[in-house]
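Researcher: Let's walk through a ligand-bound prediction step by step. First, I give you the protein sequence. Second, the SMILES string for NAP. Third, you return the three-dimensional complex as structure tokens. Ready?
Model: Ready.
Researcher: Here are steps one and two:
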Amino acid sequence: MLIDVANPLDFSRGMPPSLTVCNTDSLGEQIQRAHPAARVVKTLNTVNADVMVNPAVVSGDHTIFVCGDDAGAKETATAVLVDFGWPRHAILDLGGISACRGTEMYLPLWVAMRQATGTGHLNIRVITE
Ligand SMILES: NC(=O)c1ccc[n+]([C@@H]2O[C@H](COP(=O)([O-])OP(=O)(O)OC[C@H]3O[C@@H](n4cnc5c(N)ncnc54)[C@H](OP(=O)(O)O)[C@@H]3O)[C@@H](O)[C@H]2O)c1
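Model: Step three, the predicted complex:
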């Protein structure tokens, strides 16, 4: 099992960064294709490193995404997230690895929110009804 937290950010033209892959492919899918036995789980890329391992630095309920093609690998990754302090109800399984196209393309919004709020200690919460 491989937990991929990476974002395909290209800073070569300054800020804000662009994405080296998007729309019809993603970094998570590229890693899975390059290493078919790796059972890639994409998670944690939508928060900064402090929040990854200590979600309590952001107050209240907020959401962390997981996606990947292997259910067992996602269970293992979820156990890691719980160990970091993420409540189970905060962990949203988006399905197969291709769902990380969305979580990677979220980064331009994350960067804008970082600039607007002045802190990387931020996250979003998915609410329904
Ligand atoms: N930091 C965060 O808060 C955060 C949050 C969400 C996601 N991420 C993602 O997590 C990843 C790592 O972030 P980071 O903040 O740890 O970045 P970083 O401090 O810049 O570290 C990047 C690491 O990757 C290595 N590296 C770069 N190009 C390489 C290559 N071609 N081959 C092998 N190793 C290479 C670098 O090695 P050298 O030191 O030898 O150059 C360095 O150890 C990124 O994809 C980032 O988007 C980070």
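Researcher: And what stands out?
Model: The two ends are 34 Å apart (CA to CA). The beta strands are 2-4, 9-10, 18-19, 40-43, 64-68, 91-93.
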